[in-house]
Automatic annotation (TrEMBL):
Swiss-Prot/TrEMBL keywords: Repressor, Ribonucleoprotein, RNA-binding, RNA-mediated gene silencing, Translation regulation
GO molecular function: RNA binding; RNA endonuclease activity
Database matches in PANTHER family: EUKARYOTIC TRANSLATION INITIATION FACTOR 2C
Record organism: Nicotiana tabacum
Signal sequence extent: none
Gene Ontology biological process terms, A to Z: defense response to virus; regulation of translation; regulatory ncRNA-mediated gene silencing
Domain named PAZ: residues: 270-387
Region (Disordered): 139-162
Keyword Iron: no
Domain Piwi as annotated: residue spans: 556-864
Gene name of the encoded protein: LOC107819724
Superkingdom of origin organism: Eukaryota
Protein name: Protein argonaute 16-like isoform X1
Length: 903
């Protein structure tokens, strides 16, 4: 496996980066959808049959004519305080139902925890108002924690105000009727208006059950507070296993999709232990308290001495043994009859007045659990982090690897965990489900699948390769069209790599694969003095050395990075080489140099330099159904967003297009930045005031025309990644309209026929062999039983699942103007999983989508290094678009614009 090289980049062919352009905050609007999702034309028959299990449970509905009544809920507080409705909303509503049961006429309800409440049948009145009094723990208890506001009294008695009562005004107003019958209609193939609303109500009922059991709810998943479900991944962070559940309409009826799910939580327990783990230090004296303050803010803790819960707002400015506060004492202590106020440290208060021994808090800050202007302090060692607090920051590469390693479940283990959960948690015992006559079976459903035959591949010297179990290799074989590399160099940012040995082994391995390697012109080691500089300066210094030591531009540079993943060098290096100088580069960070590792590196190098590693045999002989006789362009589209919490990071849209028709293995990428978190691609067609179009599609259409002997695409197959079912209409209308306009802008009258397919990996359906413990074989396809009752979708496992449980790709055919039969389309998609030039295994999703995803992720590296003060070679400026700032990405140098850099 290669380290940082999973982040190549590709963009449009312009030598100099243009200025930032103003991107629209929203794509062009369409008043009424002109296109709707197509219906299923039939089922496939090719391949051998196989009996499977799916993690869906059969659901029966005995009272389909019931009607859910939706009510909007508003909760306000008469005090000028924060009202954490998400945290206490359920408590308020249950208290209301308990106090005013007559107003609900004995009806059970489902509450989503925020703004909506559902009942079966109407409430007596359409508008209800209640005042609900709820008791909450207060952070200002006289017997709990010291404060500087003079409100604490020295007393051995427990304060009678230890619970603070809040009055909430609750308004419930009728909103809508949601007939359960819409689900039955959807199962019969209709497209009723309320089906998603009805399914959402059923999902909310299950979520409410989980909430009543004290679970953490995250979208449609829930997590029990059970240490057996926790997995330590380092840094004070744990993976918490839970369950996803959602009702799904399928061809065989309504099902409940149940799957194992994981979320990240903070390690519960002593706060000091968490800080030591989070900062990876062994003793409290090494803790960075500024960092700790940022980490702890808004977390919930429980006090050991009182068992009460508080929210952290910060840390004290001074250590516990120096932090003073004002405390009132009674006259029994020898002061004036009316009592007096003394200044006392937090440490002295707890040790002398509360008789609580503090062993290691004296020299550490206290937790502030009060209000911004009314601090209340607790010593660190008395506080424990409450369980099930989500951790939403990005995991480090080490944490991610640990999570993956510890979360793997073999197919049989996953089946047992799911079926045990269904049995133990008794989902259909809910009274609201019982009212509707909803019952859930306890066993996974059995379904029919098919296994498609793997396509043959063409490699060098006229040889054919037949993949076995989704895999093949280049042992004693040449690449189909190997490159010739004459002038090249090795640059080394790592102090641990022997570049002389590396270059000799790479040359030797390359020659066995047919690649002609000359000896490297030079081996350049980084000056040790530069290693303390910032990454941009280090890259600039290295390129100064390269230019000085090479007689001219190299064909290729091999760059050895100091870290395998997330190297700070990577972004500046790629930006400088690809956009400023136009040099093909390959980044590596080898742990072991062996034939397998070097072969994987050579596959990428060869593709970047214009070579071809392998082709489909039918592609080589131009025997592609529906494609061989009609110029056909294949597109892969994806959008990459910033990490959670990074709302100001531009999203990166990438579109790859096929070249050299009738081949379907060669692609080029165009990448653009757009408004943060915007999923719909807004720059497929981008008209300028002067009448030009600088959109993505124009570039790809011209490239297709140039590489296909002047042929224009008469058919375009689009694979769209990353969109949910609720966004299908936008893809069908907004994005497709942009593609058509871009084609028309080139002066073309005959619009190509489009086939538009959404490829999803972010779903929860799993497939299992019914009679074997192994994962399903590569090529497994399912287009019956668990698919949509009307729409044209299917599941496919093209790859071999070697570890854990295979996740199938879920393909949704939204539009098919080309007119593929189910068998031809499914075999084409299966074949497109074997043309990924970086790999000698079938991919889990079609190669165009993999390339688009890779190009978007890799080019996002350019946005990561923002300290342009280190060098004058900045990548552009930032312009504000409304409230959003979007940095336009640099464009590739013309020397490298035709290369498959995303390889």
């Amino acid at each position: 496996m290669e380290g940082s090289e999973g982040r190549e980049s590709c963009c449009s062919p312009v030598a100099v980066a243009p200025p930032v352009i103003a991107l629209d905050a929203e794509p062009e609007k369409v008043d009424q959808p002109k296109r709707t999702v197509m219906s299923r034309p039939g089922n496939g028959t090719s391949g051998r049959g196989i009996t499977l299990l799916a993690n869906h449970l059969k659901v029966s509905v005995k009272c389909p004519d019931e009607i859910f009544y939706q009510y909007s809920v508003s909760i306000t507080c008469d005090e000028k305080r924060d009202v954490h409705i998400k945290r206490i909303g359920r408590k308020i509503i249950h208290k209301l139902h308990e106090t005013y049961s007559s107003e609900f006429a004995g009806k059970k309800f489902a509450y989503d925890g925020e703004k909506s409440l559902y009942t079966v049948g109407p409430l007596p009145r359409h508008r209800l108002e209640f005042t609900v009094v709820v008791e909450e723990s207060s952070a200002k208890h006289a017997s709990e924690s010291p404060s500087d506001n003079g409100s604490n009294h020295h007393s051995s008695k427990k304060s009678k105000h230890s619970l603070h009562s809040k009055a909430f005004l609750v308004e419930i107003n009728y909103a809508a009727k949601i007939p359960l019958k819409s689900v039955s209609l959807a199962l019969q193939g209709a497209d009723p208006e309320n089906v998603q609303d009805a399914l959402r109500v059923l999902d909310i009922i299950l979520r409410q059950q989980a909430a009543n059991r004290g679970c953490l709810l995250v979208r449609q998943s829930f997590f029990h507070d059970d240490s057996r479900n926790f997995t330590d991944v380092g840094g004070g962070v744990m993976g918490c296993k839970g369950f996803h559940s959602s009702f799904r309409p399928t061809l065989d009826g309504l099902t409940l999709n149940m799957d194992v799910s994981t979320t990240m939580i903070l390690s519960p327990g002593p706060v000091i232990d968490f800080l030591l783990a989070n900062q990876n230090v062994k003793e409290p004296r090494y803790i960075d308290w500024a960092r700790a303050k940022r980490m702890l803010k808004n977390l919930r803790v429980k006090a050991k001495h009182s068992n009460k819960e508080f929210k952290i707002i910060g840390l004290s400015e001074r250590p516990c043994n120096q932090q003073l506060f004002s405390m009132k004492v009674k006259n029994g202590d020898g002061l004036d009859n009316g009592g007096d106020t003394i200044e006392i440290t937090v440490y002295e208060y707890f040790t002398k007045h509360r008789n609580i021994e503090l062993s290691n808090s004296a020299y550490m800050p206290c937790l502030d659990v009060g209000k911004p202007k009314r601090p209340n302090y607790l010593p660190l060692e008395l506080c424990y982090l409450v369980s099930l607090q989500r951790y939403t920051k990005v995991l480090s590469s080490v944490q991610r690897a640990s999570l993956v390693e510890k979360s793997r479940q073999k197919p049989r283990e996953r089946i047992k965990v799911i079926t045990d959960a269904v049995r133990d948690y008794s989902y259909d015992d809910d009274p609201l489900l019982a009212t509707c006559g909803v019952s859930i079976e306890k066993q996974l459903i059995q379904i029919n699948g098919r296994v498609l035959e793997a396509p043959k591949l063409k490699v060098g010297n006229g040889e054919e390769v037949v993949p076995r179990n989704g895999r093949w290799n280049f042992n004693n074989k040449h690449l189909l069209t190997p490159s010739r590399i004459e002038r090249w160099a090795v640059v080394n940012f790592s102090a641990r790599c022997d570049t002389s040995h590396l270059s000799r082994e790479l040359i030797s391995c390359g020659r066995t694969k047919g690649i002609h390697f000359e000896r490297p012109h030079t081996l350049i080691e980084e000056d040790p003095q530069n290693r303390r500089a910032g990454p941009v300066v280090r890259v600039e210094k290295m390129f100064e050395e390269i230019i000085a030591r090479l007689p001219g531009p190299p064909d290729f540079l091999l760059c050895v990075l100091p870290e395998r993943k997330n190297s700070e060098i990577y972004g500046p290096w790629k930006k400088k080489s690809l956009t400023d100088l136009g040099i093909v580069t390959q980044c590596i960070s080898p742990l072991r140099i062996n034939d397998q590792y070097l072969t994987n590196v050579l596959l990428k190098i060869n593709a970047k330099l214009g070579g071809t590693n392998s082709l489909l045999a039918m592609e080589h002989t131009s025997h592609l159904p529906h494609i061989q006789d009609t110029p056909t362009m294949i597109l892969g589209m994806d959008v990459s967003h910033g990490s959670p919490g990074q709302s100001d990071i531009p999203s990166i849209a990438a579109v790859v297009g096929s070249l050299y028709w009738p081949l379907i293995s060669k692609y080029r990428a165009v990448v653009r930045s757009q408004s943060p978190k915007l999923e719909i691609i807004e720059s497929l067609y981008k008209p300028l005031p002067n009448g030009d179009d600088e959109g993505i599609m124009r570039e790809l259409l011209l490239d297709f025309y140039r590489t296909c002997n002047g042929h224009k695409p008469a058919q375009i197959i689009v694979f769209r990644d990353g969109v949910s079912e609720s966004q299908f209409s936008q893809v069908l209308n907004l994005e497709l309209d942009q593609m058509i306009k871009a084609y028309n802008h080139l002066g073309e009258g005959d619009i190509p026929k489009f086939t538009l397919i959404v490829a999803q990996k972010n779903h929860h359906t799993k497939l299992f062999q019914a009679s074997a413990a192994e994962n399903v074989p590569p090529g497994t396809v399912v287009d019956t039983n668990i698919v949509h009752p009307r729409n044209n979708d299917f599941f496919m496992c093209a790859h071999a699942g070697m570890i854990g449980t295979t996740r199938p790709a879920h393909y949704h055919v939204l539009l098919d103007e080309i007119g593929f039969s189910p068998d031809v389309l499914q075999n084409l998609i299966h074949s497109l999983s074997y043309v990924y030039q970086r790999s000698t295994t079938a991919t889990s999703i079609v190669a165009p989508v993999r390339y688009a995803h890779l190009a978007a992720q890799q080019f996002a590296q350019f946005v990561k290094f923002e300290d342009l003060s280190e060098t004058s070679s900045g990548y552009g400026s930032v312009k504000s678009i409304g409230s959003t700032s979007v940095t336009e990405l640099p464009r590739l140098h013309m020397n490298v614009s035709d290369s498959m850099f995303f390889c």
